[in-house]
Amino acid sequence: MSKTILELRNLNKSYGIVKAVDGISFSLERGEFLSLLGPSGSGKTTTLHMIAGLTSVSDGEILLGGKSINALPPYKRDIGVVFQNYALFPHLTVSQNIAFPLEMRGISGKEATSRVNQALQLVDLPSFGSRYPRELSGGQQQRVALARAFVFEPKLLLMDEPLGALDKKLREYMQVEIKRLHQRLGATIIYVTHDQDEALVMSDRIAVFNAGKIEQIAPPSEVYNRPKTRFVAEFVGETNIISAKFERAEGSFQIFRSEALEIRIQGAEPIYKNEVKLSIRPERIRIEPILSQSASNKISGIVSEVIYFGRTIRYLVDSIDGSLKLTIVKQVSSLTEKTFSKGDRVDAFWHEFDVMPIVEGP
Ligand code: ADP
Ligand code: MG
Question: Ligand 1 mean position to 18 CA, how many Å?
Fold first, then answer.
């Protein structure tokens, strides 16, 4: 049996002159949890709707289990869906709601009852079958919607911001619940979110969407630590972007310059481009009282702003020569740690591994 369950080949969707989805391709493996992450309007929902069969495809192909499903109506696609506003039927009980997709597929009687009960167990609502949706909390309703989506054991589960309407605490609880279900069922899931933390926590891989295109598709740690494009670096987490010029190579190091600052990068791939953009995460920059020696990957600066977050402190540091402004985030692991105040002279520096060259677009 092939490991690939879903394949999108150069998928496009146009609304008049708007390219909602602009040439998207990827493969999904059985059991994988893929998040589509991107800002509002970047084409996530349109992609999901094309896979589900709720929106027609302008160009390209969708293969499920090796077969093209472009021409299949939604109910013949063997795909379960959970949407933010995909409400339960208010006039049906929880059990009747969950049994609905089974009925649609001609499964009834004992077989249906047993599957519904199993689904209720899985979402931890075993005794809620005879209640009506209005008698449940928001989180419980969303669990029933989940049960309804997977009760017919679809090849693929699609979820479009399913936790968007829930408050922060409940959302975090449900994230864990969905991950648990994913593991227990061995289900293959595509999960749409605009929340970078949610995508980082839940996914095996993340596809970062921007203006109808995928800028990077990779595991969370790779998307965070090795962003390919400026958009990915800025959308997933926070970053400092430095414009620099290539100066020379030294063994496995490449040396760049930005005004007075010399930046050394340890990189497998030589860049050797005149102008580059470099990305450094705020938490990878260290901040110290003035160091005596001058060195690479270090700026002398002045603290221009201090913002207190409890667990972390955010410093804005301006280089002495005025050419750079860095955001630095420092964990506060002990109250004995040295902190800095506005106006302090400091040095900010980082490790050669922590600077990433990035490109402007995909
Ligand atoms: P996302 O889910 O990432 O927020 P969408 O897939 O909903 O983005 O939308 C992508 C783009 O397509 C947006 O510019 C949106 O305005 C446009 N769009 C979506 N649906 C329609 C439609 N039915 N008619 C016209 N434009 C649409
Ligand atoms: Mg959407």
Answer: 9
